[in-house]
């Protein structure tokens, strides 16, 4: 299934049904009076976050969503039927944007959240509604209220606990494949990852979700490369895992490039806690590892961890460091393993 995280949708709520002008006409009843019913209300357009979806691919093939109109009123005091609502089911983490793609109308971050995007029009009053002591035979009725028509954008921001950032070919997909059941494409050329991948990793009896996005390059915040299209997916992460390729020959420049792009992107992305890791240490001897680690620590000003995603050396320590940065309410117990309850008499 293709990954799609941005979709343009046209919606329209249903219009209300018109009121009815009718009079009671029965044998032996000389003054029947008005009996025209009201029109039904039009259907509304809702958006709901549901479980089991992680892409907006459904909105690639259908972009128009129109709710049903309310039926008009009828004689014998019969009210028209209301129009059926229509519900747009989207993945958790979807933002609803106005047509300008800047104004946020809603942000659905929990399963079951529901927001009304367009309210259906009210039904019109029939002539029975206008009956009074001074106007006992009204010949007027209201038309139904028109529905609301608008264009919206759906933008998906994956809800993950950890976001992987780094230059292309830094080993992000290899790390995700070695620590989870995810199977992203892994190759020895840049931009192997073309769309985000999610993986559930476990350590010390807890699980959390890791998001792998396409690699960043210099100028990504200005639209170069693929990474700027997907940086929004790590906005919701609790911590960023910054992988630096130890075999690149310019790891300090690589580190500064990523930090510069995170700061240029704006928002809270650059302020999120980060775990910096020197990757691909399986290709180095002990002396080279220590030298590059000290050099990177001097540039970053905080401790740097060592890891090899290919040989899984140091991956458990990295996962434990990530776990320490994640809020407790985000962590989930691993299935099939239960913590022993405290004994009580």
Question: Could you characterize what this model shows?
Answer:
17% of the residues lie in helices and 23% in strands. The chain is built from six helices and 15 strands. The protein has helices at residues 58-61, 172-179, 227-230, 251-265, 286-300, 315-325; strands at 6-12, 45-50, 64-66, 86-91, 94-97, 104-108, 114-118, 149-156, 162-165, 197-203, 206-212, 239-245, 274-279, 305-306, 332-333. Strands 9, 10, 11, 12, 13, 14 and 15 form a seven-stranded mixed sheet that branches. The chain has a five-stranded mixed sheet with strand order 3-1-8-5-6, with no helix packed on it. A hairpin with a 2-residue loop joins strand 10 and strand 11 (206-212). It is rod-shaped, with a radius of gyration of 30 Å. The two termini are 54 Å apart. Residues 336-345 have low confidence and may be disordered.
Can you tag this structure with a few keywords?
345 residues; alpha/beta; seven-stranded mixed β-sheet; five-stranded mixed β-sheet; 6 helices; 15 strands; 17% helix; 23% strand; disordered C terminus
Which term fits the overall shape? rod-shaped
Number of strands: 15
Structural class computed from helices and strand pairing:
alpha/beta
Biggest sheet character: 7 strands, mixed
Query: What is the helix/strand order?
Result: EEHEEEEEEEHEEHEHEHEHE
Give the number of helices.
Answer: 6
- Helix percent reads 10-25%
Low-confidence segments, given as residue ranges, are 336-345
Q: Give the overall pLDDT as a whole number.
A: 83
β-strand amount: 15-25%
The separation of the N and C termini measures 54 Å
